[in-house]
Design a protein that fits this description.
There is one protein chain. This protein is mainly β. The chain has one domain: Lipoprotein localisation LolA/LolB/LppX (outer membrane lipoprotein receptor (LolB), chain A), CATH 2.50.20. It is 12% helix and 35% strand. It contains three helices and 13 strands, in the order αββαββββββαβββββ. A 13-stranded mixed β-sheet has the order 1-8-7-6-5-4-3-13-12-11-10-9-2. The N terminus is likely disordered. InterPro entries: LolA/LolB/LppX, OM_lipoprot_carrier_LolA-like. Keywords: Lipoprotein, Signal.
């Protein structure tokens, strides 16, 4: 039984890492449901990976706790002196130019996310323990999201608009959390407004990548720090980095994005009585 509980904990940690609260399982607000499946899980064929574009290489030092450093004061943007963002020059192109101020950067991301209602993408997740996990991401706004991990991982993360379920098909377990406890809840909001829904800490550009740093102080376990990475030229989300309240870092890269095809509604169904 102890081994089963450890396996369940590890699976849940890997899944919750994508949402940014990997190290705070078992809080008072969690409502675990220990359920037995009505039939054995059916193995599915491993998706073909031919022809897919590979995401960026895993950065050095990823997953290590962040050490405390002297904070750089963030000036409040104003009409008289808008806060300019740090930039690394990119090669000139005829496509979208980089935003010049923090306010412009935030509005650029708001406009991007508010420009689609559905999203499907492949993802690669580097967890704080160094593990690399892959799978498929589905989003249908408002409120619905699914992280479907590839084998041998048997965990799924499903948001149905109200709750987030962490399901393990092999162990026949399901844990339920409020969607408001997840730092990535803004991904499924009907209308994104980063300045209203979080604390914007800064923005910068490096080449064609715009990075906006925010803090969410309402997540399970404390404040989560999130960096959103957006490709200015391609007009696409490239992924995010979450530092949980304990200081551990999880990076998720997304690629092969599709905002035209509508996901199957069954992807977002939580069975509150059964796991399978």
């Amino acid at each position: 039984m102890l081994m089963t509980r450890r396996l369940r904990m590890r699976a849940s940690i890997g899944a919750l890492a994508a949402l940014g609260f990997a190290a705070v399982l078992g809080g008072a607000s969690a409502q675990p449901l220990n359920l037995q499946p009505s039939k054995p899980a059916i193995a599915t064929a491993k998706p073909s990976r031919s022809g897919t574009r590979l995401p960026p290489v895993r950065p050095e030092g990823l997953g290590l706790p962040r050490t405390a450093t002297a904070a750089t004061p963030v000036q409040t943007a104003s009409a008289e002196a808008p806060q300019r963002i740090a930039a690394t020059p990119a090669k000139a192109s005829g496509k979208s130019s980089a935003p010049q101020t923090q306010d412009e950067a935030v509005e650029r991301l708001n406009a991007y996310f508010n420009g689609f209602a559905t999203l499907q993408a492949d993802f690669i997740q580097f967890s704080a323990d160094g593990r690399r996990l892959e799978g498929k991401l589905y989003i249908q706004r408002p409120g619905k999201m699914r992280f479907e991990y590839r084998a041998p991982v048997t965990t799924e993360v499903i948001a149905d608009g109200t709750s987030v379920a962490i399901r393990d098909k092999k162990l026949a377990t399901q844990d339920i959390y409020s969607i408001g406890q997840t730092p990535l809840k803004f991904l499924v909001k009907e209308r994104m407004d980063l300045a209203r829904d979080s604390v914007v800490m800064g923005a910068s550009t490096k080449g064609e990548i715009l990075s906006v740093r925010i803090e969410d102080r309402s997540t399970l376990g404390g404040t989560s720090k999130i960096t959103l990475n957006y490709d200015i030229t391609a007009n696409e989300l490239r992924g995010w980095v979450v530092i949980d309240p304990q200081g551990y870092e999880t990076t998720v890269s997304v690629y092969n994005l599709d905002t035209q095809r509508r996901p199957d509604p069954k992807n977002f169904t939580i069975n509150y009585e059964r796991v399978l």
